[in-house]
Amino acid sequence: MRPKAISIAAASAAVLVSGIFCSSGNNIISDNIANAEIQTRLLLEASEAGDTIRIPSSFQKGEVVFVPASDWVSGFFAGTLWYMYELTGDEFWAEHARKHTEALEDIQYLTWHHDVGFMIYDSYGNGLRLKNIDGYKDVCINAAKSLSTRFRPAAGILQSWNVDGGWQSERGWKCPVIIDNMMNLEILFKATEFSGDQTFAGIATSHADKTLKNHFRPDWSSYHVVDYDPETGEVLKKCTAQGYADESAWSRGQAWALYGFTAAYRCTADKKYLDAAENVAGFILSHPNMPEDLVPYWDFNAPDIPDEPRDASSAAIIASGLYELYGHTGKDIYREKADKIICSLSTPAYRAAQGTNGGFILMHSVGSIPHGNSIDVPLNYADYYFLEALIRKRNIEAGLPPVE
Question: What is the tens place of the pLDDT at every residue in 122-159?
């Protein structure tokens, strides 16, 4: 049985409260920083209790859920700590961010799934950007090499999941590519910047081009999974793994597409990627099932809307992506919509009371309803992208580009 979704009344209250909060002169950025310092310290204490650094991913049934370094979400908490350093300037956060980053050192050699980009760039990449720590650049390049082993030249894509075990092996796929994989291209572009080797950027560009060609419907909603024949490059099937149905629009998938193509434009200056990001943003923002507070249901086509769970993680990713899209286009609509999302997420409807939620900042995220996994709980990547969105908002308000 699904957990009870946020009620329409609660959602409406969130909009009302956020409107008051954001128009009353309160500094929403400083308020969120102060709140995050309290919450993230609690989570940090839990993760460093004992002899081994642990990686918090969620808070469920009254306990913090920890994951191994090989889990796809393993880099987000280290990235959250780096963002806390960026937001506060407090070396305390940098010290602990470095510990949690370097606990992931072996992941630079991981080749059996595609999320090494998430795992290493959110941790080592942010550490390199903020502190220029010796050796971090090499780790990013090695991670890009590992990710590149998943490139399938005939199809022109990076294979997302292996199909020789686990639930993926039961789907009959040959070479599945998920829209999420757009998020792992930035480390390839950066590896070319760091090393001068154009191979990495070439792989990233090929993957982005094939995703642009094959993942989108005419309305710019995205399929979650496109399965390729790795030998011929033929598209075999378009379907979902984490959405409601093959032809539905899984909300986090739309968020990944918006963010991923915006970042691809930043890395390449190829306008077709910017156009794609704007088209995806148009789909998201104009969808009739998007709630007034702009925190989407877990799938835009879920059958029991409005009694479906919301997904704060999708909202945070969308907000961060929209701030960057504003920076590239100067279109006020993107900044205004991102501001509204941040206002909504900053209310008690989504932001946990201090000392609760296991130390996570946001409540009400969704991992995978089809898998019965992490439904209506906090998730570490929701917090990561929420803090990233705050950084981008602060940069814009200071007259700076949202992304340095």
Answer: 999 999 999 999 999 999 999 999 999 999 999 999 99
Distance CA 371, CA 374 (A): 9
The helix/strand/coil state of 35 is helix
CA pair distance 301, 169, nearest whole angstrom: 27
Catalytic residues: 115, 180
Place of tokens 């590896």: 191
Tokens of 232: 């011929």
Handedness of CA 107, 113, 117, 119 (dihedral sign): negative
Nearest-angstrom CA–CA distance, 227 and 246: 12
Location of structure tokens 């590149």: 148
206: CB partners within 8 A, 6+ apart? 151, 156, 157
Stretch (H or E) spanning 152: strand 151-152
Query: pTM of this prediction?
Result: 0.95
* Amino acid identity, position 367: G
